[in-house]
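Hi P.,

Sorry for the delay on this. The queue was packed all week, but I finally got your sequence through. Input first:
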Amino acid sequence: MTKQKSSGVRLFTLLIALLLCFSLSPAQVRADNFGEAENLTEDAVMVITGGGAAVSTLSDGKPGTFVSFVNDGEVTITAPEGKSISTLYIIWRTPPEQWFVDAQEKTYTGGEYGFLHETIRLDQPSSEAVLHWEDRQAYLADIHVFGEGTLPDWVQRWEPPEGPADLLLFPTHADDEHLYFGGTMPYYASRGDVIMQVCYMVNHNGEPYRLHEQLDGLWTAGVRRYPIIPEFPDIYSNSLEHAQTIYDKEEILAYQTEMIRRFQPMVIIGHDLKGEYGHGAHMLNAACLTEVIEKTNDSSYFPESYEQYGGWQASKLYLHLYGENPIVMEWGELELTNPFFQGQTALETAVKAFECHVSQQTYFQVAASGPYDCRKFGLYYTNVGLDEAGNDFFEHLELPRLPEGGGETETPEDVVSPEEILPEPEPVPEQPPEELASPESEAVPVTEPAQLPEMDRPAYALRTAAWIAGGASLALFIILLLVGKHQKNRARLTGGRR
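Then the structure:
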């Protein structure tokens, strides 16, 4: 080999090595920690502009304490020396309007969906990030600051409530979804073939701490779509008749119809017709569902939402504790195989999710027996036939669901009319049991929710890239060794002549 050829080989090898280094450098920068992301909140420096409260309020981890901004607002967050900010987890006191984060000459937008808890992940780690908004009031409770790596499981990364959902739940209050629907959410979240949407009947805007409990409980139960929370206030009622003097029944019917048309569920879950323990709002919620279930495909029934979403006919409606066509979901025997739930059963996870509702622990508990048994449901409506095995809300239905439908559809021949399976109503007590009386409105700080393991997709992608790059490096190293060995053998045979 000539000197010119030898130099060419060395130059080519050097260029390949340099190219590999440059191709690896972004992954190395982004993947300096494939473990759990470091929580930098305690050591990060925050400076408030335009807000009236101690800056320490933003890093105390208590949604009950917050900074009020009258008009414009800005918070500058500086990472500890030698560290970089990769993710901001923002907790608002009340749902915000549009807001922004500036970092590394890029602006990120938040508030599009009014999430009370929202996560902003930076494209590139930064030593500083500026949270700001203009011309609006804002109430900011907490800012959690994280470095590079997989986010802790309690950091909520909500998906917007968009597109069809297979399972639509209609709880009345925050916590009803655990108390009376039991392991429904964790079980179907663990299965992975069901999209869930939760639509509440009332809001707890008068008790802001309950809004945080609500989201923490849903996240712990495996729900990842942000819930729908309407404007109906939370007012106690002890009968269906009384509830109809508080709430406009037509508005409740219109709301439920719109949600069913919007999310096109296969299965709907609702309350006990007797109001669980006699709560009139629960009764009204359930009664309205039985009224709308066969009308949501009718273009003349609340035509505004029909015009917006089209018609839809759900396949099944289950009601808690309904006596006809009963189904018992043995939540305590259903171990959740998804690693999110760390080997818990659906019932254990429901209990854990309810524990996030700190303000409600004195009055209620998740029960798998007794008068409020969260395992017991009844099939109120079906157009796919009655259940046979009785252990799955999706019996006789195909998952993942078929291509989306819409508009008017024909009623299947095997539909079971609600009138055919509706039992005679039983008397409802005028007052709820004393031990289940509605709690007083008293601000209670929210604790951190139970942790659910979740794969961090950006970190996973980086880990994959690193493995690929590592394999390429090893292959190049082996090639260079072989080339070197070949040159050495050739030199030995030729006596070192060139």
